[in-house]
Design a protein that fits this description.
The complex is a heterotrimer of chains A (about 425), B (about 550) and C (about 325). With about 425 residues, chain A is an alpha/beta fold. Chain A folds into three domains: about 240 residues, Rossmann fold (3-Layer(aba) Sandwich); about 130 residues, Rossmann fold (3-Layer(aba) Sandwich), CATH 3.40.50; about 35 residues, no CATH class. Chain A is globular. Chain A contains 16 helices and 16 strands. Chain A starts with a strand and ends with a helix. Chain C is globular. Chain C starts with about 50 loop residues before the first helix and ends in a 7-residue tail after the last helix. Chain C is built from twelve helices and eight strands. The chains are: A alpha/beta (about 425), B alpha/beta (about 550), C alpha/beta (about 325). Strand 9 of chain A pairs parallel with strand 2 of chain C.
Chain lengths: ~425, ~550, ~325
């Protein structure tokens, strides 16, 4: 049924349709609306047979989830930003124990400086934690991918993170086709855990493993995750059969067949990029775009074969590996190892900075002319950073960088005079 | 899908049994039985701890049968034994000793009331003669019957029982109990020829075809010292007085009775005199009161009944219905010496109770048997100078009391049995005696002793009713449960419980425990927490 | 009162078993068919109090639930010595997740069981004092305030023993640890610091809080049994001496636990909904030095009258506050 609803609400309804048995809730912007809506669904009785637990922290949230999943309950939670870091230990633990928990990440920047707005640093911080990470483009996909996520997770006995851009998706009202329960039940069978804590068949779960076996355990974790490269498209196909919608599988491409220049990205920014691509194509540029849905496992094959024909690839990402540059770009470069293609890294949209069509036009035009730096910070206020850097060169102690920059852009003075 | 447990992260339960932590051990715990001090001191060699163990759970017959392995007279011993076991009892160091004696008496009486019996052994075809049906002789007869030998006892008195009958008054030793226990022995096939004095051992042995003999004629002749006297007072001998009372002969005890001597016979005479309505009884002793050889309980009861102890006095003269006493003084070494000071007390009759001697008549015609310092020498096996002739009880060199006599009877019976079979056996080595420092007494409930009811004093003064009452069944069980089972496992499950490595196997009721040495790390907690000291650590051979 | 002392000559209910008592009055540990939830072959040190306490508590819980039990375990000695790959010493369904989240994991298990309608299956969380009073405290408090249907058992050995004996918020004043060395003017752990988790648990108003000790088996089992007869958040803190961390003889573990109780330094009590309902009385009062002198971690205290009297004062306060004297057999 098509509804005009908030993204978070859509996700909540989708999760509810998956008949979760335990939901752990802890508020953190911008995922909060999802668990609020789920809370209302449980409390009202619309979502039956579900324990909704208000926990004391994100660490507690995922830890409760670890317990419930290990005891054989379909388990869901959500987090973002600082919360992801606070639960980081449990994130690694859930995957290490092979627990098929599904967790939404309302992607948000990480402090300091504290910032509640969107980028993808939080998900990226745990990209190697052993979870499957699926990034969604829009709220329809958010709904659909959540439903698929449970199936992927439970089929592999691995946890899945569904990453959706905070505010841009979580708080956006769009028309969403929310599936009906019958369809979801047909697609998603009841959870049959691969292992569970059961007095009638006791196991010891979570042993200490020494040097004699740890490498093998890690190898097997790696191997297991790569199995998802086959499973994700397979389940997407199953989903399409029942729901008639294609969520794209590992990656989605847009006009790349004849493209010299391909923009690679994750998440919701693809919408704007597609518009810019369309406009540039109308002016004759051979340009296309690619969205990575499955960032973990990383679909090397799919990306390589999609980008092999291009002359240049521009990886546009909402995260930064400080001291390195692009995180996504680094992964893409690896996929293109040995292919004669130039890869540019563009960091943009950090901490909620708007990504404008104007800026993208400018960016892509420069890219097509091969006039990009290897790493570009989109819309970087170079005068501000230049002044700060100059100040640093002159003074040993230059005070708070953040305050200086704000002073430079006039915010501090404005506040003082106000 | 069920069996696809993640490698290494998920484990099957109980796999740790593959890890034999026993290899960590440098010392290993071992179970052992140590000798409890009560058993160690019992002259009759009773396994007291063991019979108390049965009594604790109310298995009185089992307990009684355990006593009967060593002593056929629980009802007698439960009354007249001086219970050195109680003095040795480790419980003394906690509160008070276990009332072993009263439980034994309870069990003995139970057996009489319920007519519990013991069967004799399979007939061996051998015949043994015993001279004297006192405790030693009867005990020996009983044990010989258990071994299947034919036994005949020759007794010069009209009734069996020896000093217990003729030397211990009824108020301490009711005759029906004594008779019952003797009767039980007779029922096992022991023949007792009463009023039959043996004058020649060798001749009697040969005449009736006995294969061996046991002599236990006791020391029945009262010692009599000459005191300078004007014959103004009758002067009697203690054992004769007691025998006269037993035989209901008219008594010379009247008026002011003076008993001379500090042993148990003296006290028995004094207490009998009280019961016979005399005007007053004084016990004159040369030593200080604390040096009196009589049992303290007896002295105390006598004093309660009105007996006056006149300590540190010796009788030097009987004159004009009075006694002249010389004051004595205790000198270094605990001995008493005369002071040269005198006093005079009125008296109606004097009874000497200064000790007893063996009647030498039995040996008159036997060269190989001679009394040495008043007693007959025997070897380690209690055999006399003549092959096959054994002796025990008061007539051989030893302390003299009923329990020792019973012990002698048992020991001699075992020696006779072995001798009849051709060879003496080696004695088993005795276990180490358990000291309280080897035990963990925390675990024993605080439990003051159950005091046997004492006949009230007025009743005691006027008759020969038994002074010390019975324990009722609850009290007897209660008292038995005060036993700490020193050195012997009583299955409290502590070792089984406190092992952090689950390395003790419980074998089930009555079967105790075993160590799983595959897993025991040798921490020693079982030893530390064993209440009774029945486990010890031994160095592991590495 | 969790456990009514049976006043019975011989050993009454002071020993693990007693052939003279009714079956009902014997401990689970005395039975031949106890579950041995924590079995032989584990790698705990000789004389480990925690290994003992864990088997005592879990076996009792197993008996109380007819073997329908699941346990979540915090990281620590108990976890490490029981489940090094490839051997597990547990015989119950058991999960180890992290150091600080055992209470939360248990909450999750309980939630799963509830939603699946498995009412008969019960959940225990367990850990050492570090995993309970320090790093796991947030999750513990959360579990308490939500009144989740979990019994949390803390095996209190007063320090981080698994990492090599460092101070925790359960380490007593004066004690030597690797991070509170007996040097300087205030040797050992500081006095007037630390966390009284049983009291804090009571402040959450949860149905049941108790302290127990490995030397009082009947008492301990009765408390576990009682806890398992209730629902909601419950907390039992079991005193478990650590020969390694305390510098004591392995054979002395139970004895030390006893001396801690008998000196009043470790009060045993029960509380329901925030109110103390019973205390386990001292049987034979001893001074604290009797307890301290067997432990090398207090060796310097034995030579320091000021510290010694400070510890005695703590014991005296406990005796006063909890009424630990009198009324015992």
């Amino acid at each position: 049924m098509l509804k005009q609803i908030e993204g978070s609400h859509g996700v909540a309804e989708a999760v509810a349709l998956c008949r979760p048995e335990v939901i752990c809730c802890y508020p953190i912007t911008p995922q909060t609306h999802i668990v609020e809506d789920l809370g209302a669904l449980v409390k009202s009785g619309k979502l039956e047979n579900c324990e909704y637990i208000n926990v004391e922290s994100e660490f507690g949230a995922l830890s409760v989830g670890i317990g419930s999943s290990a005891a054989g309950a379909r388990t869901y939670t959500a987090t973002a930003s600082q919360g992801m870091l606070f639960m980081a230990e449990a994130v690694y633990n859930a995957s290490g124990l092979g627990l098929p928990i599904v967790m939404t990440v309302g992607n948000r920047a990480i402090g300091a400086p504290i910032n509640i707005w969107n980028d993808q640093t939080d998900s990226m911080s745990v990209r190697d934690a052993g979870w499957i990470q699926l990034f969604v483009e829009d709220n329809q996909q958010a709904v659909d991918i959540h439903i698929q996520a449970f199936k992927i997770a439970e089929r592999l006995s691995l946890p899945v993170m569904v990453c959706m851009d905070g505010f841009i998706l979580t708080h956006a009202y769009e028309g969403i086709d929310v599936p009906d329960q019958e369809q979801v039940d047909k697609f998603l069978p009841p959870f049959e855990p691969r292992q569970s804590l059961d007095p009638n068949d006791p196991i010891s779960l979570g042993a200490m493993v020494g040097p004699e076996a740890y490498t093998e355990v890690r190898y097997l974790a790696h191997h297991k995750q790569t199995q998802a490269l086959d499973l994700i498209p397979e389940i997407n196909e199953e989903f399409k059969q029942i729901f008639g919608r294609d969520s794209g599988g590992l990656i989605s491409t847009y006009n790349i067949e004849d493209a010299d220049t391909v923009i690679v990205t994750l998440g919701s920014v693809i919408g704007t990029i597609q518009e810019v691509v369309d406009e540039q194509r109308s002016q004759g540029a051979k340009i296309g775009a690619l969205t990575i849905r499955s960032f973990r496992p990383f679909p090397f094959e799919a990306i390589r074969s999609a980008l092999e024909g291009a002359k240049r690839v521009v990886v546009f990402e909402k995260c930064l590996a400080v001291g390195l540059g692009g995180i996504v770009a680094t992964n893409v470069r690896l996929a293109l190892d040995g292919v004669a293609v130039t890869v540019y890294t563009v960091i943009g949209g950090l901490g909620g900075r708007p990504i404008t069509r104007k800026s993208l036009h400018h960016l892509f035009e420069n890219a097509v002319k091969d006039e990009l730096e290897e790493v570009t910070f989109l819309d970087l206020k170079t005068d501000v950073v230049e002044r700060e850097l100059e100040r640093e060169r002159q003074l040993i102690r230059s005070g708070s960088i953040a305050e200086n920059i704000l002073r430079d852009v006039g915010v501090v003075d404005a506040a003082k005079t106000a | 899908m069920k069996n696809t447990k993640p490698y290494a992260i998920t484990l099957d339960v109980g796999g740790s049994l593959l890890n034999k932590t026993g290899s960590w051990r440098t010392d290993r715990p071992v179970y052992l039985d140590r000798l409890p001090p009560c058993n160690s001191t019992c002259p009759a060699g009773e396994n007291i701890q063991q019979w108390l163990y049965h009594a604790e759970s109310g298995e009185y017959k089992k307990a009684w049968l355990e006593i009967m392995k060593n002593n056929p007279f629980p009802a007698v011993m439960g009354r007249v034994c001086y219970h050195s076991c109680e003095s040795a009892c480790n419980r003394t160091q906690l509160d008070e000793p276990v009332g072993i004696n009263s439980v034994e008496r309870f069990l003995g009486d139970q057996a009489i009331n319920n007519q519990w019996k013991v069967k004799p052994g399979k007939s061996s075809g051998k015949k043994v003669m015993i001279v004297g049906a006192g405790m030693a002789g009867l005990s020996c007869a009983y044990h010989l019957r258990l071994a299947g030998h034919d036994v005949t006892i020759f007794e010069s008195s009209p009734k069996p029982g020896g000093m217990v009958r003729y030397g211990i008054p009824k108020y301490r030793m009711p005759r029906e109990k004594l008779n019952a226990e003797i009767h039980r022995i007779e029922e096992m096939g022991v023949k007792i020829e009463l009023n039959t004095k043996v004058f020649n051992i060798a001749a009697t042995k040969e005449k009736y075809g006995f294969d061996a003999a046991f002599l236990s004629i006791g020391a029945q002749n009262g010692q009599y010292i000459e005191i300078k006297s004007d014959q103004s007072l009758p002067s009697l001998v203690g054992v004769d007085v007691l025998q006269g009372i037993e035989e209901d002969k008219p008594s010379d005890l009247h008026g002011q009775v003076i008993v001379y001597g500090g042993g148990n016979t003296a006290i028995d005479v004094a207490r009998s005199a009280i019961r016979m309505g005399t005007q007053g009884v004084k016990v004159v002793v040369r030593n200080s009161r604390d040096k009196m050889p009589a049992h303290l309980d007896e002295i105390n009861e006598a004093v309660q009944e009105g007996v006056e102890i006149v300590a540190l006095r010796s009788i030097v003269e009987i004159s004009d219905g009075h006694l002249v006493l010389e004051k004595m003084v205790t000198v270094e070494g605990g001995k008493s010496q005369p002071t040269g000071e005198f006093e005079t007390i009125p008296a109606s009759v004097v009874v000497q109770a200064l000790g007893q001697n063996v009647d030498p008549g039995l040996f008159a015609d036997v060269d190989q048997l001679e009394l040495d310092d008043g007693v007959l020498d025997v070897d380690f096996h209690m055999m006399s100078g003549i092959e096959g002739v054994f002796a025990g009880g008061d007539m051989v060199p030893s302390d003299r009391n009923v329990t020792i006599a019973i012990g002698h009877g048992k020991k001699a019976a075992r020696s006779i049995d072995q001798w009849l079979k051709g060879e003496f056996q080696q004695m088993d080595e005795k276990h180490e005696v358990v000291d309280i420092s080897m035990m963990n007494t925390w675990y024993y409930s605080d439990a003051p002793r159950t005091i046997r009811p004492i006949l009230d004093v007025v009743r005691r003064q006027s008759g020969f009713a038994e002074v010390v009452g019975d324990l009722d069944e609850d009290s007897a069980a209660f008292e038995a449960r005060r036993c700490m089972s020193c050195g012997n496992c009583f299955e409290c499950d502590n070792c089984y419980g406190v092992c952090p490595d689950n390395a003790v196997i419980k074998l089930g009721n009555g079967k105790r425990f075993e160590f799983k040495y595959d897993y025991c790390k040798g921490c020693g907690m079982c030893v530390e927490e064993c209440p009774c000291g029945a486990i010890k650590m031994e160095p592991e051979e590495i | 009162m969790a456990h009514q002392q049976v006043k019975f000559y011989q050993t009454g209910t002071l020993t693990v078993g007693n052939r003279l008592l009714d079956e009902d009055n014997r401990t689970v540990q005395a039975t031949m068919d106890r579950s041995n939830s924590l079995d032989s072959g584990h790698r705990a040190c000789q004389g480990c109090g925690e290994a003992l306490g864990a088997r005592y508590a879990i076996d009792a819980a197993m008996r109380a639930t007819d073997n329908q039990l699941i346990a979540a375990n915090a990281t620590g000695c108990l976890e490490v010595f029981t489940t090094p790959y490839p051997e597990s010493a547990w015989r119950i369904p058991w999960i180890h997740s992290l150091f600080g989240n055992a209470a939360a994991v248990a909450t999750g298990i309980a939630a799963a069981l509830k939603v699946k309608g498995k009412k008969e299956v019960r959940v225990i969380a367990q850990g050492g004092d570090g995993g309970t009073t320090d790093i796991g405290f947030g999750c513990l408090s959360g579990m308490f305030e939500r009144n989740d249907d979990v019994l949390y058992i803390c095996y209190d050995n007063q320090g981080y023993m698994n990492t090599g004996v460092q101070r925790s918020s359960a380490t007593p004043g004066g004690a030597r640890t690797a991070t509170t060395m007996p040097v300087g003017p205030q040797p050992g752990a500081d006095f007037d610091k630390g966390k009284n988790v049983p009291s804090i648990a009571m402040a959450h108003n949860i149905p049941y809080v108790a302290t127990a000790s490995v030397d009082r088996l009947h008492d301990l089992e009765a408390k576990v049994k009682k806890a398992m007869s209730m629902h909601g958040a419950r907390y039992i803190q079991v005193f478990v001496p650590c020969p390694l961390g305390w510098g004591s003889q392995p054979a002395k573990t139970v004895n030390l636990a006893r001396l801690a109780i008998e000196s009043g330094i470790y009060p045993l009590f029960e509380a329901e909904h925030g109110e103390i309902t019973s205390v386990t009385k001292i049987r034979n009062l001893v001074q604290v030095d009797e307890y301290l002198k067997h432990q090398r971690r207090f060796a310097h205290v034995m030579k320091n009258p000021e510290q010694l009297s400070a510890i005695q004062a703590t014991a005296d306060r406990n005796i006063q506050k909890y009424g630990l004297l009198g009324g015992q057999e």
